Amino acid sequence: MAHRGASGYAPENTLAAVDAAKELGIDWVENAVGPLLLAATPAGLVTVAFHARPDVRDAALSRLRARLGAEPVEAPGSARLAEPIRRLAAYFAGELRDFGLGLDWSLTAGFPREVLRELESGVPYGTVVGYGELAARVGRPEGAQAVGAAMGSNPLPVVVPCHRVVESDGGLGGFGGGLETKRRLLALEGVLPQPLF
Known about the structure:
Largest sheet: 4 strands, mixed
Number of helices: 7
């Protein structure tokens, strides 16, 4: 907590920090793949974190603090998070195919951002793309491994659908939310058969 001067007024840089804290709202939601942590700034949704149990939440919140320079503030029911929560619920219920949300891309830059933006706009619901093909789409056909790294650092999984990126031989490839979660998302979208149980 910032120290106030003798006059009782917070220094100007402390007020800026308080304002910045209000800029990063967070909430948690339960769904078919477990708890998700959502974070949003005025620019849009900035983070979706899988398996948001206490240790994962703490690590995700620490990363957000460090990367955005703002204190995450719990904001259940906030206008900024209500629409992403509603659309994620509709997606998991099989009623939504395109999120159409405002996204804050500030947690990624360079080649990873270029790849993720292509993925978000160019790989629709119910389809998959290979790592190499996605690399070629952004002008780096030799960059399949770099695409894999970009998928692993995706701050907006599900909404920016890294689960739709697979190996060229038909293998699932990796997934930060775990392979079982990737299978479930691809089954939800009709790419894979639904599990029997």
